[in-house]
DNA sequence: GCTGGCACTCGTTTGCTCGGAGTGCCAACT
DNA sequence: AGTTGGCACTCCGAGCAAACGAGTGCCAGC
């Protein structure tokens, strides 16, 4: 039985608790929000809410605190995304429009997100695996040394140095350049790696060795998932505002060091929807006191990576959700533009 | 008047305090270190050390704690660098030898340094300004779109996209490629930027416009000191072991967000010497409770950047100094190798 | 079904005592 | 002159009890 007023009470409890960080009692609730009923009535509702597991009493004579289940209901049913102010929108737009390359976009997004939400922000670098090859460049540094440069559609550039057993002349290198580009330009990276694998069989005999070496590092670079695991973190200083150090801050600090953990937190689910994971719902029991608000980004439903914020379960969900969504949209747009 | 035994006492106080985090009294001192004198004698020495400002008493009936001045004396006169264990040396060597590119070297160094010292580690990316141009590549993506790739001696790769007003044919682009490389390959970046500036005057008239555009982004990329300000930070979780949150952890967390501050902490002095900055000696009064152990790195006295660790003034100086120096040496070696 | 009243609970704050670690000083010893 | 044992003194912090008060649950009345 969850009638409207009880939902109002729950919303009020969440909002007050988020604001004050202290268990909220019936009297304060009625005063701060114009509930139009007496404290006693609210107390009855609170007792019911507690029975149903939405709120919890730290000890007998204390106010109530939302449970994870309570936050969940709040997020699902009660929260309306706080619209970004015009100033905030402008800040996002001007900052991100000024980014010069991929690294810059990621760095600026992290900074932005942490400042908007006053929380720890996490931005995953666009995954290699979903992007396409834009261009491959072969640069001969010395006769036996070739620098291989792989330019991807997301703007990511990978370079590798290859030592060849025999010298290769520039015209041969030019031929190879054309060949590798024909095989892979515009193709998704996994397919490109496969196509390149067959390439050494198709070139002139005297080029086979160098082709093999070059294709080797290329496919290696393409299947190198190191970048899939790269994330940028920012706003750690916001942890300082957390109340409880040992249960909240320390485990989170440790998690932030482990990028694999962070990726799991962001949820590589591949979906672009805005997701909220509250406390124990997450995969790590040490992080039972923290929530994650995350979403995927990428042009038009094309998932390139995820970004989000991590904070205490007691956090401003509407604000965080709005900020995460807004930043994700801008990042998607920017990446799309650079890609035309 | 600083005789030998008083120095011994100071050393013992520093070592004990670093180990226990608690003010150390005369009795415990005599017991733990074989000083060969009675507590009363030590007390006299301690009184003298306190008069001279090397140690300090939190309150009348407490033990002594080293002052910044005391740590300074300890570092200058009393500390001998803890030699790295064979296992540690091996760990450094194998980890860094496995690095595939510049980013990787920096990331791994940070991780290494923070693990070795159990402290917050900071590694500055090699500055652009001191490096030389290894190669410039021009890739035509569409007839009016050229990707400019700048490869530096440190392994750093910068890319920029240029929109041209008029289409440029591949042969012209090849000519330009040769021209820009002739002007700048092997040249220090500042000089290269200057040399490139004169280039548009020297090309064929129909190329002037595209040359100007390309040279424009190149010089911009070369004089872009954004990378001079890039630093990697790791081991933040080690902050969790700090005692006092508000005076020690919070300001440091805030400082870690501000890369400019970090660079100042590392000290861009340009010297490659191992420097230790203790508490108030640093430029920020908020960081009076933290010390910095840093050094420059780069092949043979050629300063490319700095790296170091930040921790509480009460830290293991000998260990940190040894680790910082060892990592700096390895990083220098790696960068030198990649440069041949 | 809402409300005011009331007894009750229990964590927090405050004030207090008391033990002990550590000191400074002094007189005696080497 | 430097070192030592002895001793009175200081003061922090642990431990405990009492007072406080915010908040509750329940009940009778509207």
Automatic annotation (TrEMBL), chains A, B:
Q: Which UniProt keywords apply?
A: Repressor, Stress response, Transcription, Transcription regulation
Q: What's the domain of life for this entry?
A: Bacteria
Task: Please report the stretch or stretches of sequence annotated as the HTH deoR-type domain.
Answer: 17-62
Q: Which residues form the Heat-inducible transcription repressor HrcA C-terminal domain?
A: 103-320
One GO molecular-function entry = DNA binding
Matches recorded under Pfam families: HrcA (PF01628), HTH_DeoR (PF08220)
Q: An example of a Gene Ontology BP annotation on this entry?
A: negative regulation of DNA-templated transcription
The UniProt entry, under InterPro entries, shows: DeoR_HTH, GAF-like_dom_sf, HrcA, HrcA_C, WH-like_DNA-bd_sf, WH_DNA-bd_sf, WHTH_transcript_rep_HrcA_IDD
Membrane-spanning regions, if any? Answer: none
Which function does this protein serve?
Negative regulator of class I heat shock genes (grpE-dnaK-dnaJ and groELS operons). Prevents heat-shock induction of these operons.
Instruction: Supply the HAMAP family for this chain.
Output: HrcA (MF_00081)
Which PANTHER family does the UniProt entry name for this protein?
HEAT-INDUCIBLE TRANSCRIPTION REPRESSOR HRCA
Family to which this protein belongs:
Belongs to the HrcA family.
Q: What is this protein called?
A: Heat-inducible transcription repressor HrcA
Lineage summary:
Bacteria, Bacillati, Actinomycetota, Actinomycetes, Propionibacteriales
Gene (UniProt): hrcA
């Amino acid at each position: 039985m969850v009638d409207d007023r009880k939902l109002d009470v729950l919303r009020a409890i969440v909002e007050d608790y988020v604001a004050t960080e202290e268990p909220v009692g019936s009297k304060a609730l009625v005063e701060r929000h114009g509930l139009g009923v007496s404290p006693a009535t609210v107390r009855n509702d609170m007792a019911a809410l507690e029975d149903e597991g939405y709120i919890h009493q730290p000890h007998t004579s204390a106010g109530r605190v939302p449970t994870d289940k309570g936050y969940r209901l709040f997020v699902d049913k009660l929260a309306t995304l706080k619209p970004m102010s015009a100033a905030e929108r402008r800040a996002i737009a001007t900052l991100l429009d000024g980014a010069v390359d991929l690294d810059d976009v990621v760095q600026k997004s992290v900074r932005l997100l942490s400042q908007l939400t006053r929380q720890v922000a996490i931005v995953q670098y666009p995954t290699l695996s979903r992007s396409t090859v834009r261009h491959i460049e072969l640069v001969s540094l010395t006769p036996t040394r070739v620098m291989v440069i792989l330019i991807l559609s997301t703007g990511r550039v990978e370079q590798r140095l290859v030592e060849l057993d025999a010298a290769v002349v520039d015209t041969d290198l030019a031929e190879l350049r054309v060949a590798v580009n024909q095989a892979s330009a515009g193709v998704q990276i996994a397919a490109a790696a496969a196509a390149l694998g067959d390439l050494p069989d198709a070139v002139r005999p005297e080029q086979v060795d160098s082709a093999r070496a070059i294709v080797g590092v290329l496919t290696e670079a393409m299947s190198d998932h190191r970048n899939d695991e790269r994330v940028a973190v920012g706003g750690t200083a916001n942890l300082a505002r957390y109340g409880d150090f040992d249960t909240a801050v320390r485990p989170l600090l440790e998690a932030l060091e482990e990028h694999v953990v962070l990726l799991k937190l962001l949820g590589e689910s591949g979906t672009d929807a805005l997701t909220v994971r509250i406390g124990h719902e997450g995969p790590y029991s040490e992080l039972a006191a923290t929530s994650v608000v995350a979403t995927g980004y990428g042009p038009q439903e094309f998932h390139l990576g995820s970004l989000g914020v991590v904070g205490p379960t007691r956090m401003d969900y509407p604000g965080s959700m709005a900020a995460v969504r807004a930043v994700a949209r801008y990042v998607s747009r920017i990446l799309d533009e650079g890609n035309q």
